[in-house]
Amino acid sequence: MSQWQAEKAIQSASQQPVTRADSAGRELPADHRPMTLRVWCAVSSAIIETIRDAVASAENRSERKIRVLESRIAELEAKPSLAYRGIHKEGRAYNAGDAVSWQGSLWICLRSHVARNHGIDHDGTWQLAVKKGRDGRDAR
After folding, report:
1. Beta strand 83-87 pairing with 98-102
2. Residues with Cβ < 8 Å from 86, sequence gap 6 or more?
3. Quick check: 87 pLDDT over 60?
4. 3.30.360.10, 3.40.250.10, 2.120.10.30, 2.10.10.90: which CATH number matches 83-130?
5. pLDDT of res. 121
6. In 3-state terms, what secondary structure has residue 132?
7. Most CB atoms within 10 A, among 12, 70, 74, 88?
8. What are the sequence ranges of the domains in the chain?
């Protein structure tokens, strides 16, 4: 019978915890076995692999969420937004969604272009949004 087995048998018989001292004089449970380097390396490797897998999984989920958000942002940015650019001016670049005033009416740009002449082109580049109304009775 080994020393460890003997200590275990004594412990079981007495129901009292049997302790022993390590090389530094610290008291240890009788059934304590120091971890060998091989066991320590195996346990450490398993822990490292588990952590690596968890990080990779979290990273993959994050990357998928980022791709979805980037796609949604690109989709939203591609939609024209309404931006008032003041009075229509010749030579100025307009983008789809730009709004301008011309002769009292409000026009919305339907496609990007540079204004070629003084006034709104009626070639499908602009759409009338608000037509000029009549002047008030007191002409204000």
Report:
1. parallel
2. 100, 101
3. yes
4. 2.10.10.90
5. 76
6. coil
7. 88
8. 1-33, 35-79, 83-130
Return the residue matching tokens 């008030």: 136
Residue 118: name the closest of 138, 139, 98, 88 by CA.
88
Name, in order, each residue with C-beta under 8 angstroms of 105's C-beta and a sequence gap of 6 or more.
128, 129, 130, 131, 132
Residue type, position 27, single letter = E
Strand, coil or helix: 8: helix
Q: Which residues of 79-103 are buried (b: 16+ CB within 10 A; e: fewer)?
A: eeeeeebeebeeeeebeebbbbebe
Find, among 99, 104, 107, the residue nearest to 133 by Cα.
Answer: 104
| pLDDT for 10 beyond 70 | no
Q: Which residues contact 127 (CB under 8 A, 6 or more apart)?
A: 107, 108, 110
Give alpha helix (H) positions in the chain: 3-14, 37-78
Q: CA 20, CA 30: separation in Å to the nearest integer?
A: 6
